[in-house]
Amino acid sequence: MIVALSGGIGGAKLALGLSHLLDPARLLIVANTGDDFEHLGLSISPDIDTLLYTLAGLDNPDLGWGRRDESWACMETLEALGGETWFRLGDRDLALHLARTARLRAGESLSAVTDAMRRRLGVGPRILPASDDPVRTRLATDQGELAFQDYFVRRGCAPKVRAIAFDGAAASRPAAEVVAAIAAAEAVVICPSNPFISIDPILAVPGLRAAIAATPAPVVAVSPLIGGRAVKGPTAKMMAELGLPVTARAVAEHYADLLDVFVADPADAAALAEVGARIVAAPTLMRSLPDKLALARAVLTAAGVAVAAANPVAGTAR
Ligand code: FO1
């Protein structure tokens, strides 16, 4: 079993690449839930949904979130009725939130609901939240304490971040199977997601960081920065505001003792010489499917995992 920790768009891209190289039963994706929130009476889990849509081939290539072939009739109508439309929910995307919210209200766990949606959308690899208990990223900023989506969407990541906390993490328990899967893994992959708002909320679930530190499996992280710049999102800006050097090295050091291997873009690999982990240089910008396959292959090879020949696993999203 390869266990991949993922949040946001970059993580989902590598997860897609991995899904093409591994039989579905051999890949477990652990999703960040720190971005989750209740909105318009709906339980929204953006990073789970980005994974579901990406692996189902339904992701919106322009937005990076939500569904392709979307319509916005509900948002337009809600606007006319004076409802909140700052968080854009497409008509088809809304159906997923309605289905999830109904099942959660009926008492199903987030893991169970996510697995039901995965099967309905024809996604092969399992996707699990890091925890079924609520973990919510909150940011202390120059505009006060902000909930994640308020910071990220409503204010467009403009506030200056001073500190990041994960409400509920201390009381949260890892989702069933995640700890066992990590302990028995062939490899653990930390995807090129924002370390602070996508990976740290996963590592903040008691027992998960310890499980990763203790597993005999190689732990391989992929840098989300290229040449000191984030591929997408606020990673670089956030690092500067947190007083960290905006470098791949600072990311590797952030994961500290967890890493066996750190995969960085050739632009950064040279400056990573004496970092504790073994450094592997590989192009980390993923625009096309071949890019995603190549990085996934480099990651698995770095972890010593034998992968199939060039032919992608049949029936997986493009
Ligand atoms: N991101 C935005 O920047 N604007 C939006 O209106 C927006 C809506 C949205 C709806 C559903 C969903 O699953 C994700 C959505 N996102 C939106 C992305 C969301 O903020 C995620 O938290 C980011 O992708 C970071 O992981």
Written account of the structure:
The chain is an alpha/beta fold. The protein has a single domain (2-223, 290-302), classed as CofD-like domains (Rossmann fold, 3-Layer(aba) Sandwich). The protein has helices at 8-21, 46-56, 73-80, 91-105, 110-120, 148-154, 178-183, 195-203, 208-214, 235-241, 248-255, 266-269, 289-302, and strands at 2-6, 27-31, 37-39, 42-44, 126-129, 136-141, 144-147, 161-167, 187-190, 219-222, 225-226, 229-230, 261-264, 278-281. The protein has a 7-stranded parallel sheet with strand order 5-2-1-9-10-13-14, sandwiched between helices. Strands 7-6-8 form a 3-stranded antiparallel sheet. The protein has a two-stranded antiparallel ribbon with strand order 3-4. β6 (136-141) and β7 form a beta hairpin. The longest helix has 15 residues, at 91-105. Bound molecules: ligand FO1. Ligand FO1 binds at residues 7-8, 35, 46-47, 49-50, 65-66, 87-89, 93, 149, 152-153. Residues 7-8, 35, 46-47, 49-50, 65-66, 87-89, 93, 149, 152-153 line the site of ligand FO1.
